[in-house]
Design brief:
alpha/beta; Rossmann fold; seven-stranded mixed sheet; single chain
């Protein structure tokens, strides 16, 4: 995504209580379902302003924040020093560009629906992980298109849980599980959110 769809939203992104609550729920579900330790180096895919990573930070050693939005990365940079682990910000579009290094885990919140080729992204995740590495990917269940009220570069109206689990398995992941993570409350509807976890052998 060359266009910064979040340029005008970044500064007020965390003022939405429902958004913050949703990420809190996702973070709690990750903590409950993934074994985290203080030696781990994670990647947060679609890190935005850092809502998810700052909640995971106390449990790990380092998080590499990957996001295409310069405006969101700038918001994260402003609080980088206050986050409870080492944070590196990498402004890259993983769907078209490679990133160096290997990770012990990849976390992500509400980003996959902005990715055109889901199967290819799972393959990328797999190659970026150390042996025994884990993914914890959260996104919307299939919805009717009403979740997004403005253009933010959306390719998918949520996901069928079985279909996205198969995509992870086909990329080589094992122990794939999909669990309830949260519900986003909007004036015009309720939108369930799942967490997919899996492991690289």
């Amino acid at each position: 995504m060359s266009k910064d769809f979040f340029k005008h939203k970044a500064a007020v992104y965390e003022s939405d209580d429902n958004r913050v609550s949703n990420v809190d729920n996702i973070a709690n579900t990750i903590i409950e379902n993934i074994k985290l330790d203080r030696a781990m180096h994670l990647m947060d895919f679609g890190s935005g302003t850092g809502l998810l990573l700052e909640r995971i930070a106390p449990f790990v050693n380092k998080i590499t924040a990957v996001d295409t939005s310069a405006a969101m990365n700038e918001q994260l940079a402003q609080k980088q020093a206050r986050i409870a682990c080492d944070v590196e910000i990498v402004p890259v579009d993983l769907s078209v560009s490679a990133i160096s290094g290997k990770f012990d885990g990849i976390i992500s919140s509400m980003t996959m629906h902005h990715v055109q080729d889901i199967a290819a992204m799972f393959v990328t995740f797999y190659t970026l992980l150390n042996s025994g590495g884990v993914i914890a990917i959260s996104d919307l269940d299939t919805e009717d298109g009403s979740f997004h009220t403005e253009d933010t570069g959306v390719y998918h109206m949520g996901f069928d849980r079985q279909a996205i689990a198969v995509a992870a398995e086909q990329a080589g992941f094992q122990d794939v599980e999909v669990v309830d993570a949260s519900v986003v409350h909007k004036p015009h509807g309720q939108y369930p959110v799942f967490l997919l976890t899996a492991k690289k052998k």
